[in-house]
Amino acid sequence: MQKNRENRTICVPFVSDNYNTNIKDPSAFRKELDHNIKAYPELFPAGIEFGYELKDIHFSEKLSIFIRRIKVSGLSYTIRPSFVMPYMAGMVDDVENGLFLRKFDVPFWALSHVFGKNPMYWYRLEQSLGRNNLVGTTVRNIESIPKDLGADEKHSWIKGKKTYVATTVGGNCILGTAIATDAGEKALTGAYNNFKYEAQCLNPEYSPRTVNTDGWQWTQNAWTTLFPHTVLIACFLHVYIKIRDRSKKKYRVLFKQVADKMWNCYNAVTKAAFSQRVRRLHEWLLKEVDVPEAILKPIEKLHTNVKCFSIAYDFVGALRTSNMIDRLMKRMDRHLFTTQYFHGNLVSAELNIRGWALIHNFAPSNPLTVKKYVGLQSPAEILNGHRYHDSWLQNLLISASQGGFYKQPLNPL
Q1: CA 228/CA 385 separation, integer angstroms
Q2: Membrane spanning segments where (predicted)?
């Protein structure tokens, strides 16, 4: 993903009913802005606590509202109310339901048929979300950024050419998506580096504690290159899946025995008990007669590399399986399939998948899930423990204030 020029648009949770009155009155506008600075300092640029200047005001003919700009430390920033879409593309109330349906991959032509506009309008709205910092928008404070991650690549195509969506997840949120042109170490390192860049915009000292991977060598090398001190954990589930896919029907009885023993290993309470159970499973198989290679080889590999699996016991909360990323990538797979993969270029492909990822992170979950988490309605809200606004789309836009980036702009206007 190309790094955008610094975003100088601050999205603030103004109330639409009294906005047009307050925006024209400098004192009322400053009072409302001061309240938001005190309540949500993370939405504003560094240095605003030392004061700011009301710069100018202009009228949007497109949406018939006034927009103000302020000056902070000599730099100009636009104040956009949260009920307005970026680039003055529309009002949130008019597009929120349509973008919610994109969580379920309703096609753009169908949104156009139901909600009006044309298909390209809805396409561009979703693409515009992808320009924001995925980590900085989803994670609203340094303490909330997950230290235990999962990483994998989703196979896809751009105009028929094979590509890979390097995906990083944590806290049940998608924190990184970038397109790699091949599955080699260099390409994957470049793709996962996008996550590193965006995470370290939030916290320059950030380094994940653990990363769970499926065992692909170039994925592991990429993470070791980017974060030398991060511990890599091999996915136990992939060993089971490899055996299941090759032997469940052909060697039904033996597979059932091996599967039961494998999950007995997985459920071991301590690191020593896990290693001992894996060793006993391996010894038991060696004593059996005519054990097929489809079962024996994966267990031998598990036994040989047991430290790559057991090291997870040293880190409470670390991901021992790829279950989290597999669940999220199933949704990604449905999204890619319904769109018949990517049709543009590398940049548009990344904007597409990043926009979809933010919609996934912020759009409301099933009501039963919301009830389970005491009213927190999306993965991002659960991760952060709060929301800025009851409207999920306004919550997303507010979270994306300054594009989700926290660095000072380089060149004053």
Answers
A1: 30
A2: 222-241
Q: Which amino acid is at 73?
A: S
Place of tokens 């490899």: 242
Strand partners, 58: 67
Distances in whole angstroms, Cα of residue 7 to Cα of each of 65, 131, 137, 152: 21, 10, 13, 30
User: In sequence order, what are the beta bridge partners of 232?
Assistant: 211
Mean pLDDT of 104-115: 97
- Whole-number Å distance between alpha carbons of 12 and 394: 9
- Percentage, residues of the chain above pLDDT 90: 91
* Model pLDDT, residue 3: 52
Q: Which helix (H) or strand (E) holds 266?
A: helix 252-266
Q: 3-class SS at 81?
A: strand
93 in Cβ contact with 67 (< 8 Å): no
d(CA 208, CA 128): 28
d(CA 25, CA 54): 11
Q: Which residue has the higher pLDDT, 7 or 342?
A: 342
**Distance between the two ends of the chain, CA-based, in angstroms?**
25
217 pLDDT above the threshold of 50: yes
- Look at residue 408 and tell me whether its pLDDT is greater than 50: no
- pTM over 0.90, yes/no: yes
d(CA 175, CA 199) in angstroms, rounded, equals 9
- 412, pLDDT greater than 50: no
d(Cα 259, Cα 244) in Å, to the nearest integer? 8
